[in-house]
Amino acid sequence: MSIRFLRASTLLLVGLMAALETVAPVAAIQDGGLNADPLPMWQTNDTVYALAVTGGVLYAGGDFTSVRPPGQPPGGPGEVARRHIAAFDADKGTPLPFPHDVDGGIRALRLSPDHGTLYVGGEFTHVDGLPRNHVAAFSTATGALATGFHPSVNGPVRAIATSPQGSTVYLGGVFQKVNGVATVGGHAVSNLAAVSSTGQLLTSFAPRADKVVHALAVPDDGSRVIVGGGFNYLDGVAGRGIGAVDPIDGSIEPWQFHPIPLEAAVKTIITDGQGHAFIGSEGTYDGTFAVNYSNGSEFWFDRCYGATQSLVLLKGWLFVASHMHNCAPGVVGGPKQVEKVWHHFAVEVPGNGHVGGWWPNTSGNPLGPRALATDGAQLFAGGDFVAVNHERQQGLTRFGGPPDTTAPSRPPPPTAQGAGTGAINVTLTASLDIDDGTLTYTVLRDGTVTVATRTITSKPWLRPTVTVNDSGLASGSTHRYTIRASDGINSNQSSPSASVVAP
Known about the structure:
By secondary structure, this protein is mainly beta. Helices cover 0% and strands 39% of the residues. The chain has a 4-stranded mixed β-sheet with strand order 1-40-37-36, with no helix packed on it. It is elongated.
């Protein structure tokens, strides 16, 4: 399949003529079902690369060495040491006792199917002074380092997945030996391996990736291991960045859709339990796509650029951590974006990839959040950012559900001009609400008289214009118009238009 990557620079202006009848204002439904204002959350002093949450506890791993209260600068009051891993109360955002000493960065966190074990992968070689070469495990019940799981991997582990029963732990990264073994199944160990839940190397599993593996996922049915990364060959078969292998012997499985070009890499893979895998990549193609995981055939392909780092399914939406920009025309529900602002959070419809209206942002430079996780009600995000929605917050943040507290942006002043005897046309431009894709707009004459109400859907790169006709005015009368934008709870009002005389 050939794919054209469109990078036009022209702005597509969309004009919508309003219906003649007035539409009654309605409360908008938050796209994503989450408030775009973040909830209080302790911060880290460096990048968070991995998250996992269970039993009311959020685990974070990365390059940080301390955590501190929200709103505080680095080194501020209350800062406490947490070396590369930390645990937090998921409902309060406050730290919990989990003072383990990991001597290198963490890149992967994965819970066992029963959530009793937290597997950790990264660049470390010791945990709490004990040898743990690039992979370790903790008990989620006690917080203790697991003593019976300590396979030795000779290079960084970037991805971890487990079989549905939890008996097998799959590892991906950049390594050539596991437990001192360099050859499995007649092939050299190459960036992929499997160990038992007690750490023994499974010599029956012998796939190979010629370059780094960043992501692994096993569907609920355990039918295959989906592998993503920067490789060109998987188990000796050409397949840039994405493919699947048998969960027992690692032999290559059918995979039809290969949208990843050279100089791109898959960074994240999740499955929905309904036959679909959602995949994000970075590089020369750095958007999000979905496949039928039984054979890797295309489900949808969003063609938005933005170095997708992490994906989560929550409240019927696919949450995307990226720097979404440059969306191609004819897809994802709108024309090509040409503005230079990068959007570090977005939501998409899981069934078709269309982009919804949820746009909180971070200061991450430039990729956006590196990790997402959910407890089924909240969204947790980690990355290299130092601010969220322009407020100080480093490394870690979280978002919860309604009530909606974010107001629409202030609409631009409308334009007004005569349109025949006793009539004036008023043209408004949609504003933006970072957690409501559709807003209700009220056209007011002279600050008090409602002329019309319209419901309009907008995106950061798509601000429709709508014209309404105000008729029955006294000839020669002078008027000014304002626009009120409302999400049903919060509102914002434009400055008045210039004065205009009815013909």
